[in-house]
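Milestone 3.1: sequence recovery, worked example.
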């Protein structure tokens, strides 16, 4: 996706799962690694640099991710604006939800690569 463009995210959750938050984080595009560096790698995590965090509140009419329920499933849709960074980067979108009275948990992570095109 080109730098500085807007995009729409949307989703439908399983029945009895409620959307709690959507977190957008970024990092610079990964650089090539040597074999020695790769051999030291055992896992990857979500970056610390936060672009935006959205917390869903079904009692508010101006919620950035308005929810609607269709056939017992929550659906959301929102337009996200990216900034005009000078370099390529990777955006991580983390979606958290909760089922019934259980604690909030991470239910999905998506990555999008932004380029200068």
């Amino acid at each position: 996706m080109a730098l500085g463009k807007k995009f729409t995210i949307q989703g439908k959750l399983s029945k009895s799962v409620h959307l709690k938050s959507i977190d957008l984080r970024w990092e610079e595009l990964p650089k090539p690694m040597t074999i020695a560096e790769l051999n030291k790698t055992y896992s990857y995590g979500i970056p610390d640099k936060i672009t935006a965090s959205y917390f869903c509140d079904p009692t508010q009419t101006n919620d950035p991710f308005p929810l609607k329920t269709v056939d017992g499933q929550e659906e959301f849709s929102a337009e996200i604006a990216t900034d005009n960074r000078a370099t390529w980067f990777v955006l991580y979108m983390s979606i958290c939800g909760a089922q019934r009275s259980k604690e909030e948990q991470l239910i999905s992570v998506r990555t999008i690569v932004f380029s200068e095109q």
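The beta strands are 6-12, 17-28, 50-55, 67-70, 73-81, 89-99, 105-114. The chain has a mean pLDDT of 81.
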